[in-house]
Design a protein that fits this description.
CATH topology of one domain: Replication Fork Single-Stranded DNA Binding Protein
Strand content: 15-25%
CATH superfamily of one domain: Replication Fork Single-Stranded Dna Binding Protein
Distance between the termini: 66 Å
Largest sheet: 7 strands, antiparallel
Shape: globular
């Protein structure tokens, strides 16, 4: 029988693994989404270290590709692979996956499938945690933390930029102000709708100034996924086709490029992809509908979208075949 000390150690290890899996093991990310309902935290956002960025955040777009398991493995649990949507780099590239998905929203029978493969938007900020809602026992030495913010919280943050009562930037070192994130619950989801900016300005403390001098402000764009090259774009489309078709993830074929979190791979053994797609360069004008081709619920948000379920079997086979036919017959 395990001792009490052994039980406590095991529980602590499990808790640590949960936190690490939610942050990718990166302690600089502040995992506010683990704050329980009724709790709150206060942030002081800082400017981007990139002087060419007008904003104090960058947008990140990823596409989740669900698979019914991993090819050749007996424990066929569903897995998800995240791939970058290249349109977030703002250099004229059109995402080959979204090019296939956009027309689906014109067909009601394909809308649900379109939602599954649409880009998931989040926004990367950084700054100080001036009130810790997690009671972190071992915060990182660098107190400039990173925040991965969902679209609804992002709208609340932007409110200060359009409110004429605010005359200073919230990131100003002397006249800036803090943002209070309040956690509620609604419909089984975390609800951050009561989060708000503080009205009173607060100059940065000596400790906060010292942290900026010591560690400097990073370029937020460095935290975006690496921009895929032409080969990786081909792999992304090939995986997309396989995912829509309900196939298993092929680690031998795609593991060198993209793989589920925690899956290991020998990078010296990977055949070339066969999907044929070239990067498409053209001016892209995004509209509100382009960002979300459906109505998003107001106020309710998860900081991270939960893994997409495995592609449905049987009842969706004919739908998947129709979609794949359109993909392969594109002109």
């Amino acid at each position: 029988m395990a001792t009490l000390a052994e039980i406590r150690a095991k529980l602590k290890a499990a808790e640590t693994r949960t936190t690490d899996s939610n942050t990718g093991g990166d302690k600089s990310i502040y995992p506010f989404w683990t704050i329980k309902a009724g709790g709150e935290a206060t942030f002081r956002f800082l400017p981007d270290g990139n002087p060419d960025n007008t904003f104090f955040w960058v947008e990140r777009n990823v596409i989740k590709l669900p698979f019914a398991g991993i090819k050749g493995q007996t424990d066929n649990k569903a897995v998800t692979v995240n791939v970058p949507c290249v349109e977030m780099y703002n250099d004229g590239l059109i995402c080959p996956i979204l090019s296939e998905v956009r027309p689906w929203f014109k067909d009601p029978s394909l809308e649900e499938m379109g939602r599954k493969y649409w880009k998931k938007r989040s926004f990367i900020y950084h700054g100080f945690v001036s009130k810790d809602g997690l009671d972190e026992k071992e915060p990182p030495e660098n107190s400039i933390r990173r925040f991965i913010i969902g679209p609804q919280i992002n709208k609340l943050i932007h409110a200060a930029l359009t409110d004429e009562e605010y005359t200073e930037l919230p990131t100003d070192y002397v006249h800036g102000f803090d943002f209070t994130l309040r956690v509620g619950s609604k419909g089984g989801f975390a609800d951050y709708s009561t989060s708000t900016w503080k009205r009173n300005t607060r100059p940065l403390s000596e400790e906060e100034r010292a942290a900026i001098d010591k560690f400097s402000l990073p370029n937020l764009a460095d935290y975006l996924p690496k921009k895929p090259n032409e080969v990786e774009l081909k792999v992304m489309l090939e995986m997309f086709e396989a995912s829509v078709n309900g196939e298993a993830y092929d680690i031998e074929r795609w593991g060198k490029y993209f793989r589920p979190y925690g899956v290991q791979f020998d990078e010296n053994a990977a055949p070339a992809p066969t999907a044929t797609v070239a990067p498409v360069v053209a001016p892209v004008v995004h509209t509100v509908e382009e960002d979300a081709p459906w109505d998003e619920p107001a106020g309710i948000v998860n900081a991270f979208t939960p893994p997409a379920p495995a592609v449905a079997e049987a009842s969706s086979d004919s739908r998947a075949n129709d979609i794949l036919a359109r993909i392969r017959n594109r002109g």
